[in-house]
Amino acid sequence: MTVEASPLSQLRMRTSEKWRAYPDDVLPLFVAEMDYPLAEPIADALHAAVARSDTGYIGPDDRAKRAFAGFASSSWGWTVEPERTLTTADVSVVIVESLRLAIEPGDRVIITPPVYPPFYEFIPEAGGVVEEVPLLSSETDGWSLDLDGIERAFAGGARAFLLCNPHNPLGLVHSAEQLAAVATLAARYDATVVSDEVHAPLTHTDATFTPFLSVSADARRHGIAAHAASKAWNLAGLKCALFVTADDRMTDRIRSLPVEVEVRTSHFGRIATEAAYRDGRDWLVDALAAIQANRALLGTLLADQLPDVRYREPHASYLSWLDLRGLGWGDDPSARILSEAKVALNPGTDFGAQGAGFVRLNFACSAEVLTEAIARIHRMR
What we know:
By secondary structure, the chain is an alpha/beta fold. The protein has 15 helices and 15 strands.
């Protein structure tokens, strides 16, 4: 089976954000939606639910949890106990509710920019205050967590760390060693780590994803992970995610949440999630092959047409972090690109002050669309 992006004529019939935010003359390479057709096992499961009029309230059913546990075991060698998990509407709910359990109003929560923009909103929603510990960047070693900076923040009173693993927008897959070091620090200062792992199934074949809760007893005692099929199988609109814990301390925390947190799980989302984790692996393998082909194509296109743009290949997901500072197009080059080239990208500044002069580009599209987008930008020069 080969996963190929749908034609633009079909994509423009979609009503999701990617295809409604801009006019039809704009190529949308911004929001994290893929242009690939829905995996057949998921479509079949949803069609079957409609056929049996299975559109009521969610009830007791742990099949999605067990499907995730099976996927985690076969993909990452990670043993997940379904009874230590809880479903809810989406990853943002997992994050906010986990932070509410971990902090008091006014407590500081660490993030590591440049990072997924809603992190800046989730922390205040949970009652906390953002504390930035920017990632380190090296020409030779690439991006990495600033462990010394994280320790200083914990020592200074930060009560939690909102970790992005793999890291959006960089496609950075954190090493087991760095994650274990984070867990050691969390234990030393009795802090909580909430690990957003929604991009984990999209780790490329040249990298190894390490679940935070798998690295040590300290990680299990001090961590809660957020997982969902939403990014890997393009299910964001179906609203289902999982709290994942691995120690009685954190399991008791999520069990203390109001029942409505779980009841807000979408019934269709849970059906789709079960199908994705249980039967969607073949589709995912082929989607990743298409993504990695476009990852390489993007590098070639930039080298040929925009050599002043700096690009480090990501090792997870389908999002690229492009340094356009060499073009001299200001702190937000995405605005000029949208206006002149009719290509929609994410402004780097949305990801923190460290993103000035950068853009995020989504390359989960056809090779033709990606090629046209870079050609349009090239013609601006």
